[in-house]
Amino acid sequence: MKISYHLPGLFEFYELYKLFLPLFRNHREYFYDWCEIGSIYGAPGDCLWGGGRVGFGEEAPEKVAGLMNEYNISARLTFSNSLIEDKHLSDKRCNYLCSLFEKSRNVQNGIIIYSDLLLEYIKARYPGFYFVSSTTKVLTNFNDLQTELNRKDFQYVVPDFRLNKKMDMLNSLTDHQKRKVEFLCNECCSFECTDRKKCYENVSRKSLGEYCDDHICHSPNAGRGYRFSDAMKNPGFIGIDDIQNSYMPAGFTNFKIEGRSLGSAIILEFLIYYMTKPEYALNVREEIYLDSMLDLF
Fold this sequence. Notes:
Layout: E1 3-8, H1 14-26, E2 35-42, H2 61-70, E3 74-79, H3 92-101, E4 110-113, H4 116-125, E5 130-133, H5 142-149, E6 156-157, H6 167-170, H7 175-180, E7 182-184, H8 196-207, H9 228-231, H10 240-250, E8 254-256, H11 264-275, H12 281-289
Parallel strand pairs: 1-2, 1-8, 2-3, 3-4, 4-5, 5-6, 7-8
């Protein structure tokens, strides 16, 4: 059995992936043979339909689509804005992105989505996509997760990270449902957070160009920002030992790595931790860091 990682930064970390993808293809011995890249997800900066995180990707969509086609990797547009109305559906930029990325050569591209209104719009006009139910729905109730998994619209469903370790309940899912679950592995948000939906809604408002104050996170460690070392201590954290020894044997094969709002250096650390054999970690770092064209910080 192999697992698929779904990686952050389709537009945000184009330069990093331009170096990493040929390394992954040409030096497969550096990487665990039980994992593949299932997709790379993201959205350009100032994307009206965007959500989850405020996008800052500036790479030309045509170049991004070309890179994904070259390496036969599914591109996922993160259109998880929760506040979409009819008036937003005609946005020219987002419709152009759909028309561009629907035309993938060898693999099907996807849409990460929250709004059912937007889902029906894209299904009708761009039928070539598959759909992923966004973690921004904050599915913390197991029955709600099951309901979402049973929806035929979605090929994958990303539950809230606080369901990650509920193995007794997760093991009760059917094989079909298990194949649709996509776990968010490295969330750093407080396990006790009750404002997660409000935080995502704040991002949705900003993506729509609405004026609103920043969401104030009341987590004890909010001032520290994202730290992988903190994420590893999170009760919902899924590490490679968990993947190999618990999730894979149980039939779960899809794992999402967060990080669109971070920097290239920390994304590289995720790629090394989750995908790279320890004895080759230095090789991968050298190949990436020694390329003077990439600004890792």
